[in-house]
Amino acid sequence: MTLRRIGAETLLTPPAPPRDTVIMLGLTGYAIQVGEHDARLVRLHEDGKTILTEVDAKTTETFAYHLYDAIGGTR
Fold first, then answer.
1. Nearest one of 23, 18, 62, 58 to 38, comparing CA atoms
2. Which of 34, 50, 51, 69 is deepest in the core (most CB within 10 A)?
């Protein structure tokens, strides 16, 4: 195991925020774009994308818990 010295500047500099994750829904032309604090359902097309709906963080978290329970997960 190799030890590496980390300077104070490295410790005090916060990491870059995570980028949005896009989850394609098969070949339907729709996707879910998940950000750090929200999610949105988008329709993809040749000119870009159209946001169909936005979901706040609390609703996204509730949905994730219900989905996890539905597939037989445990908390």
1. 58
2. 34
Listed residue (65, 39, 61, 64) closest to 52, CA to CA: 39
CB 53 within 8 A of CB 40: yes
- Model confidence pLDDT, tens digit, residues 3-19: 777 777 777 776 666 67
| Alpha-carbon gap, residue 25 to 31, rounded angstroms | 5
Q: Which two tokens stand for residue 74?
A: 């445990």
Q: In what order do the strands lie in the sheet with 21-24?
A: 21-24, 30-34, 38-45, 48-56
Report residue 10 as tokens: 């490295």
pLDDT at 75 over 60: no
